[in-house]
Amino acid sequence: MGKALGTVNGNQVPAYSAEGKTEETLWQEYRKTRDPKIREDFIKQYAPLVKYVAGKVAVGMPSNVEFDDLVGFGVFGLLDAIEKFEPEKNVKFKTYAVTRIRGAIFDELRSIDWVPRSVRQKTREVEEAIGTLEAQLGRTATDQEIASSMGMDEDEYLKILIKISGTSILSLSDVWFTGDENDKVSIGDSIESPSSLNPDVIVEKDEIRRVIVEAISELPDKEKKILVLYYYEDLTLKEIGQVLEVTESRVSQLHTKAILRLRSKLTNIRKGII
User: Fold this and answer.
1) Model-level pTM greater than 0.85?
2) How confident is the model at residue 114 (pLDDT cuts 50, 70, 90)?
């Protein structure tokens, strides 16, 4: 590794790697050779990202979820990111890796089924209610309409959102296959961060990407912004609250609604495609 230093989320890390080569050159070389020494350099350089993401995910998690376990899960995401990164797509590796690390952590949390059954059931009920109602209305349903369809008042519905907010996980590495096993697309691949913070971007040719972007674009404006700020810009809920000038609790509610609404939309769309 060279002497020059850069910064990753406040941590100083080498900006140049083996033999004084630039990182861009090393990525191109690694793509061609899969040199294990270059791979090791990348692992050492970006290891701080794993703890950074694990720390973000750990906020709000129940006490039975250990930070060290989250870090362990995240390491697999970093390794996956290094293997699959395509520098020619003009996406920063840090941005790509954060998505993969978070996705690996969430995937492992889901696999060990750490969410209490009662909370999971309530989450499923809300998601199904949103999906059914919005399919009938042909538009975004209001909180009052969703609450009414579930036989409760709006305040009770909002309290439920807070209760399930810590467990409503949307992994941006969730994959939709487009037919060929090697031809796959993730929700994360479909969210970009233009200056307008509008994730409704044009994604070329792929039908699955198109419907994912369409589902995101149909979310209420604040919910769209929260998805971008949280999953792409990597802000905390508190930081998002400062940007949007609302309380952290309100951001938590909106975040949960965005996830449930998006997941229900994608479920309905997927049923129509597959």
Assistant:
1) no
2) low
Name the segment(s) of the chain with CATH classification 1.10.1740.10: 5-111
Is residue 98 within 8 A of residue 57, CB to CB? The reply is: no
- Cβ(258)–Cβ(140) below 8 Å: no
Three-state DSSP class for 14?
strand
CA distance 65 to 140: 34
Pairing type for strands 175-177 and 11-14 reads: unpaired
The end-to-end CA distance of the chain, in Å, is: 48
Residue type at 252? S
Residue ranges matching CATH 1.20.140 in the chain: 117-273
The CATH class of the 5-111 domain is mainly alpha
8-state DSSP, 115: S
> Over the stretch 50-70, which tens digit does the pLDDT of each residue have?
999 998 888 767 667 788 999
Q: Which helix (H) or strand (E) holds 175?
A: strand 175-177
* C-beta separation of 149 from 134 below 8 A: no
Given a contact cutoff of 8 angstroms between Cβ atoms, the answer to whether 18 and 3 are in contact is: no
| Gyration radius of the chain over CA positions | 20
Domain over 117-273 is classified CATH 2.40.30: no
